[in-house]
Design a protein that fits this description.
It is built from four helices and no strands. The mean pLDDT is 90. Helices cover 63% and strands 0% of the residues. The radius of gyration is 13 Å and the shape is globular. It starts with a helix and ends in a 7-residue tail after the last helix. The relative contact order is 0.15.
């Protein structure tokens, strides 16, 4: 894996762990790693906040099997897309075609 991919994954992992919809990151630091690749791929393909929120909703419901307030994935999608915009602005080479 390339260093910039490692850095992006680490940054995104930190965001997901801060969000921690399952409340487990004190014990399990890689619980949300299953979302890293798909989220980065969505972002690299230009997904907007709505698409990221839809992905997060799907993961919460179908993968993790938890109920959530509709605003939770929307707020997280805002954080993720803002982070991505800043990461790309800082280093445009991070985006893959």
């Amino acid at each position: 894996m390339r260093p910039e991919s490692d850095a992006l994954e680490n940054d995104l992992r930190n965001l997901l762990n801060e969000w921690d919809p399952l409340g487990v990151t004190e014990d399990v630091q890689d619980e949300y790693d299953c979302m890293l690749g798909p989220l980065l791929e969505l972002l690299r393909r230009g997904a907007d906040q709505a698409k990221v929120a839809a992905f997060l909703c799907y993961e919460l419901e179908d993968h993790f099997g938890i109920a959530y307030l509709p605003s939770e994935p929307v707020r997280m999608a805002t954080r993720v897309t803002s982070w991505w915009t800043e990461a790309v602005a800082a280093d445009g080479t991070r985006v893959q075609g």
